[in-house]
Write a structure and sequence with these properties.
The protein is of the alpha+beta class. About 45% of the residues lie in helices and about 20% in strands. The strands form 3 sheets. Strands 13-12-11-16-15-14 form a 6-stranded antiparallel β-sheet, with helices on both faces. The model has no long low-confidence stretch (mean pLDDT about 85). One of its GO terms (molecular function) is kinase activity.
């Protein structure tokens, strides 16, 4: 709870206001009490000042406490409002609760009533602040783009956004009420609960995301990162938890491909002939980089008047049938070979010097292999490659270039000897 609790106390008896303020201040030094002797003055005060709780008498000359409450509720449906009155009838209490009063307390003799009032104020304010925090989280859940949920203390979803429902493969109505253990597999919910307990015990605990697997309604498993945080009441008690889920399938795929590519680079480095190294690289493009249409163009002769395909994937033959040779100054392949600058074309038909403007290939990666030729990968759709594809292709071709350079040097050395 905040360091101070702002209270507006309205009662037509000024002496009782002063007495109540004095005793309340003794009960809790966080209380800061503003008093007014009429609901009209109380409403004026509410226009210029923010309060955490209103305490009001019932029977006042111009306006009853119920009427005051109804006016307050028009502008603030949830601000704590305690009716503190000498009227002890059940009808008054019922009217107060029906009108939206947070609590009802009958005035008594003696000082015990102020202790009771102080406790009611604290409880009302704590509940109000917790509810406001939950509402803020709810607003965040509704608007955030990532899958997001709120769990109750038992681990059941009380709020889910459309993104989470879409990830799980159901509608929001189905998602709400699900227990987290139904979609967080391999004990992830229990581990999350333990992490939340650590966070509550020590606010300095690392809140960083942790990886879990989410299982969908149709049994698919999605690798994700989840960032969780507790929602606590003002007294520190645990009320709920909020989780933000991010699909990391693409990242995991990249990591697997990169690891497999590292294995390939070791195989490349062990190659002892041009043909072997090229075959290893093209097989890696197909199996590791998942580029179905790929090949290597190399100079047909030392004069380099033509570039010919020296190794291709099976997919490139299916698309083209007979793979064409590239004559001098023809197409993007020749441009990359002569300039040494790679081309990552989202749509090759936008290039006026494309080899064939009617080509079934719509996007291409063209990476120079030093003086040895050009690595080409294609896709039949525009934007067929992403930055990860570009990065991995660069790693593969850089390694192949280094290996072929080393083989050339070894050959030159042998010829010299």
């Amino acid at each position: 709870m905040a360091d101070s609790i702002q209270i507006l106390h309205v009662d037509d008896e000024s002496s009782f206001l002063d007495l109540t303020a004095e005793f309340l201040s003794q009960e809790d030094d966080r209380f800061e009490i503003i008093t007014e002797t009429s609901p009209a003055d109380g409403l004026d005060r509410l226009d210029t000042q923010t309060f955490d709780c209103i305490v009001s008498d019932y029977q006042m000359p111009s306006t009853t406490g119920i009427e005051f409450l109804e006016t307050v509720r028009e502008s603030d449906p949830s601000l704590p409002f305690i009716l503190f009155t000498g009227e002890g009838s059940e009808a008054v209490a019922s009217d107060a609760i029906s009108a939206g009063a947070t609590d009802y307390l009958q005035k008594q003799t003696g000082t015990e009533q102020y202790r009771l009032l102080a406790n009611r104020i604290i409880n009302a304010v704590e509940s109000y602040q917790t509810q406001r925090e939950l509402e803020q989280y709810k607003l965040l859940v509704e608007t955030v783009g990532d899958p997001m949920y709120i769990l109750d203390t038992d681990g059941s979803i009380v709020l889910a956004n459309e993104a989470l429902a879409e990830m799980l493969g159901c509608d929001r109505e189905t998602a709400i009420g699900m227990h987290a253990g139904e979609f967080l597999v391999d004990g992830a919910y229990q581990r999350g609960s333990e992490r939340l307990a650590e966070i509550r015990a020590d606010p300095d605990t690392d809140w960083s995301t942790h990886e879990v697997t989410v299982t969908t309604m149709d049994g698919r498993e999605i690798p994700t990162e989840i960032n969780i945080a507790p929602v606590t009441a003002a007294d520190g008690s645990y009320e709920a938890s909020v989780g933000v889920v991010r699909d990391i399938s693409a990242r995991k795929q990249r990591e697997r491909r990169l690891e497999a590519l590292h294995t390939t680079t070791r195989e490349l480095i062990d190659a002892t002939a041009f043909e072997t190294a090229v075959d290893v690289a093209i097989r890696a493009a197909e199996d590791v980089l998942e580029m179905d249409v790929a090949g290597l163009y190399a100079p047909e002769t030392a004069a380099a008047d033509r570039l010919v395909p020296v190794a291709t994937t099976t997919g490139i033959e299916e698309v083209f049938g007979e793979v064409p040779a590239i004559e001098r100054d023809e197409g993007l392949v020749w441009r990359v070979y002569t300039t040494g600058d790679p081309i990552f074309a989202a749509d090759v038909r936008e290039y006026p010097d494309a080899y064939n403007e009617e080509t079934p290939i719509r996007s291409e990666l063209l990476v120079p292999v030093g003086d040895h030729g050009v690595f080409v990968a294609g896709a039949t759709t525009t934007d067929g490659f992403d930055t990860t594809d570009e990065e991995l292709a660069h790693i593969l071709v850089t390694t192949l270039t280094r290996v072929l350079d080393d083989l050339d040097r070894e050959t030159t050395a042998i010829d010299t000897d």
